[in-house]
């Protein structure tokens, strides 16, 4: 767990640095990381970016509701083709899906939301919220298995 937390905090950390932190020699740390990769626990290494510095400074979430006979998977597949869509969550409850978007402007936001609405004939409701500030936990997440 400590090795994973170290990599999540900084995926560029060297094996020797992680080994010192977890009080092991580099060889076992390297083997454990390899086992975690082989087991699919570690699926890749990534970076985080400051969206305002790469031109997508406006973030929003759009709630979507569909008619009962709508194939939500088709909407998810369509949404995933839009470069402005960062994430699609299908949900239980009043809202069927939540789409997280990153765009350059309010006009771009309107264009993307309109595309989402038009694609799904079964879309009966959308509500878009603009993100003012964001925080996320860059640690392990545990879901139901």
From TrEMBL:
<keyword id="KW-0804">Transcription</keyword>
<dbReference type="Pfam" id="PF13412">
    <property type="entry name" value="HTH_24"/>
</dbReference>
<protein>
    <submittedName>
        <fullName>AsnC family transcriptional regulator</fullName>
    </submittedName>
</protein>
<keyword id="KW-0238">DNA-binding</keyword>
<dbReference type="GO" id="GO:0005829">
    <property type="term" value="C:cytosol"/>
</dbReference>
<dbReference type="InterPro" id="IPR019888">
    <property type="entry name" value="Tscrpt_reg_AsnC-like"/>
</dbReference>
<dbReference type="InterPro" id="IPR036388">
    <property type="entry name" value="WH-like_DNA-bd_sf"/>
</dbReference>
<dbReference type="Pfam" id="PF01037">
    <property type="entry name" value="AsnC_trans_reg"/>
</dbReference>
<dbReference type="InterPro" id="IPR011991">
    <property type="entry name" value="ArsR-like_HTH"/>
</dbReference>
<dbReference type="InterPro" id="IPR019887">
    <property type="entry name" value="Tscrpt_reg_AsnC/Lrp_C"/>
</dbReference>
<dbReference type="InterPro" id="IPR000485">
    <property type="entry name" value="AsnC-type_HTH_dom"/>
</dbReference>
<dbReference type="GO" id="GO:0043565">
    <property type="term" value="F:sequence-specific DNA binding"/>
</dbReference>
<feature type="domain" description="HTH asnC-type">
    <location>
        <begin position="1"/>
        <end position="57"/>
    </location>
</feature>
<dbReference type="InterPro" id="IPR036390">
    <property type="entry name" value="WH_DNA-bd_sf"/>
</dbReference>
<dbReference type="GO" id="GO:0043200">
    <property type="term" value="P:response to amino acid"/>
</dbReference>
<dbReference type="InterPro" id="IPR011008">
    <property type="entry name" value="Dimeric_a/b-barrel"/>
</dbReference>
<keyword id="KW-0805">Transcription regulation</keyword>
